[in-house]
Every structure is written in structure tokens, then in C-alpha cells.
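User: Protein folding is very new to me. Would you mind checking the protein record under this note? It all follows right here:
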Amino acid sequence: MNDILKARNRRTFLRDSAIAAGSIAGIAATPPAMAFALAPQETVARRAATLPSSSPSLSRQFAQWVVGLRYDDLPAAVIDRAKGLTLQNLASALLGSQMPAGRQAVKFVADEEAGVRNGATIMVDGTRVTKAGAGFANSEMMLAGGKWDTFRMLTHPGTAIIPGALIAAETEGASGRDFITGVAAGYEVMERMAADWIPTVMARGFHAGPVFSIFGCAIAAAKILHFTEDQVHAVISLCTNLAGSNLESRALREGAAVRNAMLAVALAKQGTVAGGEAVLEGSAGFYHAYAGNNTGELTYSFAGATHTRLDTLTADLGKVWMFLETLYRIYSFAGYNIAHIDVTAKLCEEHNIEYTDVDRVEAVVNWLETQYPSPAFPTQREDVGEPRRGSTRYYSAYGVVKRSFPLLAGTAEPPEVLELMKRVAIIPSHQMTLFGPRITIFTKDGKSYTTQATGREFMWDFDEEVRRIRGVIPGLPISAAQFEQIIATCRDLDRQKRADTLVQLTLKK
């Protein structure tokens, strides 16, 4: 969490960033393998990624599906995940409300916008501001809290989708079922748009998280607000204009995406913005702009291929749920490191391995996990150089020494971790699954013990999420009893008359 806070404390958005201009939105608003794949140096005569001329555009297909989606269409596992991820992100907002970046965001928005008549509520604080302002502040608190969700390593959908969905629910007086349906639609559209393209977008200097999450946020809100097909299409079109986030700057992320999503929703609601039909796949559309082409050429690939097809974005919508790949980033550090705690700890428990027994540790990982944020310009190398606090080697050693990791900051660091991390080797592989390291512990008696993670260890059900997230209760700004009310409301969200009850339950009493 310290690394997160340091990065976010460097921000100067309060005085001189362009987000102040975004307040117009409030005025208007009355587990797959990853492998290296260099794109071939060939002309873009390949048109396999484009849709047949007789097919509706991608945005139309998404819009038709979103409008037609009903709560009764959702599989039980999708409903369960929507409830759990809502709880996870609410917990993160509660924690983040006490962090410098969270407090700064709330103060900025409240100072600028407090007292509006038709707006939305800043969680924990309770101030009524514009919808865009509330979205920005709530997202920033979730980011500051560090308890995110993760989709394919580099995106954190809930930090944008949940704030947007809650604002729409508060505006509409939406039921828990409508909220869940909107959340599911937002995650599914965003993750389908992002899935194959995340490393390629990152390699062009954009942060894929905000670039794609603006769509998820806006889709969730549009669904909850009962938009028509034309309005949903307009939202997607507007988001192609408003998406962004730069890796060199890193000053604004999902908070700005939510603010811009609320602008897109407000304009689309007016019905005055149409937008081109091929806004995603067109020759000057979203994928050409952010990925460098609309023909499916990939700079780096999750699946090892050098090419994908845009028409797969909408294949089997509602039948195959990519949403279920979303995992819980329960620890407040880089998601690609979380398995090194739990998988290593379990291996030690199974074989009764103590720190004093260990000679060395090897972890074979997906190679892209060793070059964050992109092999095009890595700022962190996990496989070379001296080990450091917060590195993959550090967390592997922590898993051995403590067999767990604290959910809250402030726990004393065991000196054994700093010693053992010097004897941990990280081995990149082009064949390893994402978030699924192969851990081998070599003991001093000449034996070795190996386990292979699946990459799905942090994709759990609501009951497991409750068990794990309760560990943050001592660090919350509300009472344990009040947090238990949030848990109970999330559990029974499909029976709640108003989903925005969750917002009220975050307010300090």
C-alpha cells in the first residue's frame, strides 16, 4: 500500500490538471496464458478482424445486448461475483477515505461542487456534489484503499464500474436487481473490449485500465438508467472521445475515467449526440487509435498469437461470461504478486516447511509479469537486479516466513523476509499462465517441493470474499456492526428495493 500512496501523493491534480474542466458533466447531469508475440512486420492488408459489411457494428451489437439483458438472464455465478466485487470495492473506498489521496480527492470535489441540487453522494463523507464529481471522488477513494479487483493483470474494472453504477442507482432509485444487472453488463462489455488488447494498448503508452474502464462505467450506468439502444450506442461513441490515460504521466486514472463516463452518459441521455456507427472498429475508430490498427495485429498477446479478430468481441454474448475471470486483489500490492503469498504459504503448510528449513526458492512466472507495465518500457524488472521491498522476490519470501500477508498497513516487517528474498529466483516463461506461478522450495536437506498455481486462486465466491475482507474491519472508519450491515446488504442485494442503500451505509455515524 505504501507504494500506491507514494505514487498517488505525487499528484498535482488539485490545481493544474484538466479535470476541473470535467465539472461540466455534473452540470449536464440533471485465466488464460500470456505469451510473447511481436506483431509481424507486414502491411495491414489483412482485414480478417473487421466485420462483414452486413453485420451490425460492434457498438450496435453491444447496445442491443445491453438493452435486452435482464436479471433473470444472469447465471448464479455472475450474480455472486457482482455482489462480491461490490463488497470488495466498497471496502476499498472505506479504507481509501482515510488515505491522503482519498482525502485530497474528496476535498477537491467538495470545495468545487458542494451544494448542488441534483447530484450524487460522496461515500463515507456524505457531501452532495455533481454526479461526475461524486464518481471521481468515490473512484479515487477505491484506488487509494488498494483492495481492487483485477482483470488480466493490468485493469481494475470495479474502481470505475462500481462508482458509476452506484451513481446511476442513486439517480434512478434503482433496485438491487437492476444494479446487479447493470454491473454485470458493464464488466462484460469492458472486459470483452479489453481482453486481447491490453498489452498492445499498454505498449503504445496508454494505461489500459482507464482506457477500457470508461466503457464499463458508462455501460453500467446506462443500463441502470434504462437507456435505449440508440442511447447506449451514443454512450459508447462518446467514450471513444473521452477515453485516455498516459503511462508516462500516470497522474490520472480510473477517477478521471468515471468523471468522463458520467459526461458521456449525461450527453447521451439528452439524445442530441449520435456518433458514427463504426466507432470501435472503423478505419479511424477506437482500436485504430489506441491499439494502432483495426485489423487485429497485436504487439504483445495474452494467448501467444500475433493476431486476433474484432468480431470475437461480441461472440456468445450472454452465453460465455468473461466477467467470471475477474479476480479479487485482496492484498494492496501489484496483482501479479498476490499468488506468491498464498501459493507459497500453502506449499509450506502442506509439507510443514519452516523458514529455517529453506535453502532457496524458485518461482517460474509469466514473463510479462516481470516487465511492468510493458516490455516496451519496463519500469520494474522482477527477474533481474537486487531484490527490494515490494518485489516479487519479497512476496515469495514473505509467503514462506509468515504464510500470510496483512490486509492492513502497520504490521512490523519480519527481518527474515529481507534475508530470504535474496535467495529467491524469478524465472520468466512464455508458457506460464497469468497469475499462476510454479513455486519450488529447495530445503537444506537436499529435498525440493513444487506446486503449480492455476491462476484462479483469487476467483472465489461471495462467502469466501466475506471471510477474507473481514480482515480490514480494524482499519475502517465505521464500526464493525455497520460493516456487517454492508456485508448483509451485498449478500441480499437482489432483494433490496434500493441499491443506493449501500452508499448510505458507508456514511460515518
About this structure: DSSP finds 20 helices and ten strands in the chain. Strands lie at 120-121, 128-129, 148-150, 327-329, 358-366, 371-372, 380-381, 424-429, 438-443, 448-452. The CA atoms of residues 33 and 433 lie 4 Å apart.
